[in-house]
Amino acid sequence: MSTSDQDGNPAAEAHVHLSALGVHLKAHGFTVDPVAGGITVRNPSAPGWRVSRRIAQDTITCAPRKSDSGRYWYFTSWRQPIAEADRITDALMAIKAYLGAPT
User: Fold this and answer.
1) Is 84 in contact with 68 (CB distance < 8 Å)?
2) Contact 1, 16 (CB under 8 A)
């Protein structure tokens, strides 16, 4: 989907991409909650979470990436690029890997 599909509204396009990613993450056992500007993704099945009560989680955002001609990308909470927004499977695999889920 291009920005013209959303009347040039970058927030709306990011929301569409994040919603699509959220559906895939939920299907893989993650909990997904919308937050301002992104989604919080939690992996309650990460190794050791029951002992420490710490759940592997991150807040994923979606925004144009200047170094990729303004294409939309998913980013970690520390602004590390995950994958181009049109590559949901790549994003899913990367998120599963760094949140401790089997790939």
Assistant:
1) yes
2) yes
Identify which has the larger pLDDT, 18 or 99.
Answer: 18
Per-residue DSSP letter, 90: H
Could you read off the pLDDT of 41-95 as tens digits, one per residue?
A: 998 877 655 545 556 899 999 999 999 999 999 999 999 999 999 999 999 999 9
Beta-bridge partners for 57 = 42
The pTM is what?
A: 0.83
CB 18 within 8 A of CB 62: yes
Is 28 exposed, middle or buried (CB count within 10 Å of its CB: 0-12, 13-18, 19+)?
middle
* Rounded distance between C-alpha atoms, residue 25 and residue 13, angstroms: 19
From residue 96, give the alpha-carbon distance in Å to each of 3, 41, 57, 77: 28, 10, 10, 15
